[in-house]
Amino acid sequence: MAIRAKTLTLLLVLVLSTACGEEGSLSEQADVGEIWRGLAIAQEDRCAPYDRRDYAYNSRVLEPELVRELGGVYGPYTGRCFDNARQTDVEHVIALSEGHDSGMCGRSQGEKARFASDPLNLTLASPEVNREEKRHYDAAEWLPEKNACWFAARVVSVRQKYGLTIDQAEAEALEYVLSACDSTDLVRHCTP
Asked: Of 172, 182, 109, which is closest to residue 149 (Cα–Cα)?
């Protein structure tokens, strides 16, 4: 029995050391299981410490583009129109820490910066929504009161664009939303 236990231990060490070598982390090589809407379903994996400074972006440079895209200073999560951009935050549809734990953690500084400043992953939100309600949550933990179909489609699109994984709970929450959508277009609930 001792020889068998040693053999199994050696095999386990060999598998783990091979899987965690230069080819990537164990989670990158492991069978991630199901695919949902082109996304690999896998548990979140913080393969490196999260440091917000690794995800550099300039919100003041990005804000005018978002205002144009949204048709004004508009917060799609609440349907609220604002008088000016100073009343809003540039908000990440997929929070930076969520992206980090879904596959960005092993990416280059350049790719992290592209993810952080990609208009596909950005919108405007009131500071209360961005900093107090949504914060770092994924779609299994938080959904907007307005434009949930648009939000769900954006989450999927951003994850697909960056090859990010998605956990089972978030995939189920997004599927629940998307299966009830007639459209994933942004709806303006107020006038400028």
From this structure: 182
Q: Please give the Cα distance from 165 to 161 (Å, whole number).
A: 11
Place of tokens 């699109």: 157
State residue 123 phi and psi, 5-degree precision.
-155, -175
How far, in Å, CA of 141 to CA of 155, rounded? 13
The tens place of each residue's pLDDT in the chain, 192 residues long, gives 333 333 233 323 322 333 333 333 323 433 457 999 999 999 999 999 999 999 999 999 999 999 999 999 999 999 999 999 999 999 999 999 999 999 999 999 999 999 999 999 999 999 999 999 999 999 999 999 999 999 999 999 999 999 999 999 999 999 999 999 999 999 998 855
State the pTM of this model: 0.81
